[in-house]
């Protein structure tokens, strides 16, 4: 997963729910030095009895924001969505020569 274009990650999930697996896996894919490199990572743990769906909010360097409902998605689909825009930003960066 391409994380160098992410500036802000917000995850809300119930850690005891089996449907929160994509949220947990996404957090595990973020590199350990991401916060030191300027990425803001916010996690909100919901109580065990919560029926609220797991959500993921991602903000990119170009200002685009993605809000994904993780209850209806698999981790591969989440990675595809995030990587699609990251590859577009990488291509733009490559073409401008930065």
Q: Strands of the biggest beta sheet: in what spatial order?
A: 2-1-3-4
How many strands, which pairing sense, and closed or not: the largest β-sheet? 4 strands, mixed
* Rg over C-alpha atoms, rounded to the nearest angstrom: 14 Å
Low-confidence stretches: none
CATH-level-4 superfamily name: Glutaredoxin
Overall mean confidence score, pLDDT: 92
The tally of domains stands at 1
Count of β-strands: 4
Distance between the termini: 21 Å
CATH C-level class: Alpha Beta
Level of helix content?
A: 25-40%
**Gross CATH architecture:** 3-Layer(aba) Sandwich
The fold-level CATH name is Glutaredoxin
Which characteristics define this entry?
ribosomal protein; Ribosomal_mL53; 2 helices; Glutaredoxin; 98 residues; structural constituent of ribosome; Ribosomal_mL53_fung; four-stranded mixed β-sheet; alpha+beta; ribonucleoprotein
Helices and strands, with pairings:
Blueprint (H helix, E strand, L loop, with lengths): L5 E8 L7 H9 L10 E6 L9 E6 L4 E5 L5 H22 L2
Parallel strand pairs: 1-2
Antiparallel strand pairs: 1-3, 3-4
Keywords: Mitochondrion, Ribonucleoprotein, Ribosomal protein
Family: Belongs to the mitochondrion-specific ribosomal protein mL53 family.
Subcellular location: Mitochondrion
